[in-house]
UniProtKB/TrEMBL annotation:
<feature type="transmembrane region" description="Helical">
    <location>
        <begin position="70"/>
        <end position="89"/>
    </location>
</feature>
<dbReference type="InterPro" id="IPR006696">
    <property type="entry name" value="DUF423"/>
</dbReference>
<protein>
    <submittedName>
        <fullName>DUF423 domain-containing protein</fullName>
    </submittedName>
</protein>
<keyword id="KW-1133">Transmembrane helix</keyword>
<dbReference type="GO" id="GO:0005886">
    <property type="term" value="C:plasma membrane"/>
</dbReference>
<keyword id="KW-0472">Membrane</keyword>
<keyword id="KW-0812">Transmembrane</keyword>
<dbReference type="Pfam" id="PF04241">
    <property type="entry name" value="DUF423"/>
</dbReference>
<feature type="transmembrane region" description="Helical">
    <location>
        <begin position="47"/>
        <end position="63"/>
    </location>
</feature>
<comment type="similarity">
    <text>Belongs to the UPF0382 family.</text>
</comment>
<feature type="transmembrane region" description="Helical">
    <location>
        <begin position="101"/>
        <end position="124"/>
    </location>
</feature>
């Protein structure tokens, strides 16, 4: 599980760096300040959770079973939260109206909050 978690974190990190650079250079010219700030929020939260996965993946304070649940919560959270923010922030650049998926942003946030709370509980319950 550690390998899968660390690899997922590394992939999320690469994607966050690429999207951050894309936002800072290419999107800066075509998005409003508000849209750019929203896009950057998606990148920041993706990177925060990249680091979180690296920590959880390499710690012995959390069981393998708990790591699996945390990984699923973070992956879903990043996809729903950051992914929907990316689409919503760039909505004006496509012919597809992504505003209909706006409801999944807070669901993604709940997954991310759940991952942190689950980790907290898993560390407390680990009696090693």
């Amino acid at each position: 599980m550690e390998r899968k978690m660390v690899l997922t974190a590394l992939l999320f990190g690469v994607i966050a760096i690429v999207l951050g650079a894309f936002g800072a250079h290419a999107l800066k010219k075509v998005l409003s300040t508000e849209q750019l700030i929203a896009f950057e929020t998606g990148v920041k939260y993706q990177m925060y959770h990249t680091l979180f996965l690296l920590f959880v993946g390499t710690t012995t304070l959390v069981t393998e079973k708990a790591k699996r649940t945390i990984l699923y919560l973070v992956v879903l959270g990043v996809l729903f939260f950051s992914g929907s923010i990316y689409l919503l922030a760039t909505n004006d650049l496509t012919s597809i109206d992504f505003r209909a998926i706006g409801f999944i942003t807070p669901i993604g946030g709940l997954f991310l909050i759940g991952a942190w709370l689950f980790t907290f509980i898993a560390v407390i319950n680990n009696k090693r």
